[in-house]
Amino acid sequence: MIDLRRASERGRPLIMGILNVTPDSFSDGGRWDSPRLAVEHAFEMADAGADLIDIGAESTRPSASPVSAEEETSRLAPVLEDLAPSLDIPVSVDTMKAEVARKAIGLGAEMVNDVNGLRGEGMMELCAETGVAAVIMHMEGTPGTTHSSEMGDGYMESIRGFLRERTESALEAGIRRDRIVLDPGIGFGKTHAQNAVILRSATFFSDGLPVLIAPSRKRFLAEAFPGTDREQATFQAVKEAVLWGADMVRVHDVAGTAAALGFSRRL
Question: Considering the entire predicted model, what is its pTM?
């Protein structure tokens, strides 16, 4: 089971390794869309220090085309079938669709990472029914409009209010409090300047729950850390996020992140 205690209790944050089994993700689309290569990469990330692997089969990059539940499941299933029984760390599924999440949970996924904040039909009920951990993320707008949306004044309170409302709804639906993680949604309907503030604000959003910060290779890094390539900027961003209270970080380069944080072994 995923240890979702706050980083202050565990002694360090968790590293969530990103595994995109998509042809069109913004950073590594197509690189791991072979099940064999995807499974191999998951084991590489585990060996490098990942505490859990987050598998996604639908890109959420700007201008990405949505895919059907059937297509998303067809990408996920072969990887999960091989990976979940043999990997010694938990697997998370990055999806907005309850139908896809149910299949993934049946194949061994222990967490649902939902960029839509458990707002899709049946998703909250599924997480309550199965007892999996759930990441509730803030997205400004909808999946189709978020990358053309920008938040205005009061965005920090607005994000926190959304996360509080979704948490209360999750608890009322039967999701246990110790199974909830909050994500303020860097890159989803925020300006570069807003993303830079959110990066350093995990404790502001927490309300006693663990907070996931996901800055990996995102566009705002060029402004937040000028003169640094996106990978090195990601490592700097992760260190900043942890300094300001992040309990979990979601990254592409697990080995580099572990080194940046000063450790290389899982709990």
Answer: 0.92
